[in-house]
Amino acid sequence: MSEAAAPVSPSAPASRRRRLALAGVSLVAAAALAGLGASWASGSRLSELPKGPVLAKAIERGTLVVGVRRYPRPAPPEAPTPPEPDGFDATLARELARSLNLKLELVGLDVAAQEAALREGRVDLLVAGVPTTAAPKGIDAAPGSYDTGSGLVVALRKGRVQDAEALRGASVCVGEGSGYAGAVSLRFGAEPHSYPSSVHAVSAFMAGECTALAEDAEVLERLLKNDEWRFYKPLASGLRPPSDAAIRLPQGDAASRDYLAAALRQWRADGTLAQARGARAGNLQFEITLLKDGFICHS
């Protein structure tokens, strides 16, 4: 998509400003993620790798069906939005479908429905961050994380938690499927509170529902440069998720599992992962800025 988000004039009516702001969210996301996979599949040797039953079935139907996280985006209070697929999950799913030369069907799933959808064959693969349970029965995971990166913990400058040691027992807001939930629990003895998305987690943190916030460092470093974030400070850096954000598939398909592992290696090696993470950081910063500016509230 070549369109760009139009600037919102301060003199425009409030309703028009909201509509333009919401349009900006969609356009910024689309523009940032457009074209990420053009080089990912081209010139690769993924096409030469064998495909097991899971991927062979998708190839036969001509469509790869991928389950992803979903949640409502920011919206005016009088017009809440329905849940939509997570943009980062969708980007990886799109690259996988492109590498197989298949159409993509995204299925947005609440966390409670994800494993059942995979077991029952309603989706071929599941791309939904770090699983809440370890090695569920009947479900396998391709080796390698598709969401690598260093995490950061922030808190109020004048809050009760002034250093990382004081995080023990403290509540920490995290997005659903975030590997930083396990990181703050294991490293600091903190109590992670999960929310449907990173935007939900940031909104909850700013509303005082948690003592601290754990998120990708690239996202928080951008936010901390904003004037309205001068009330917050970094507490701990270098967080590494103890578990992988893995592509999950039904157990017993070694060939498809190996193909996905190779795809993840290429996703990291050719820079597509870095581009996708940068796009995600920019999109989150935009949505969170809209929340803070009062254009919209979060559903």
Automatic annotation (TrEMBL):
Q: Which Gene3D superfamilies match?
A: Periplasmic binding protein-like II
**Residue ranges occupied by any Solute-binding protein family 3/N-terminal domain in the UniProt entry:** 63-284
Domain of life according to the entry: Bacteria
The reply on keyword Signal is yes
Coiled-coil region(s): none
Keyword terms, alphabetized? Signal
PANTHER family recorded: ARGININE-BINDING EXTRACELLULAR PROTEIN ARTP, MEMBRANE-BOUND LYTIC MUREIN TRANSGLYCOSYLASE F
Q: What is this protein called?
A: Transporter substrate-binding domain-containing protein
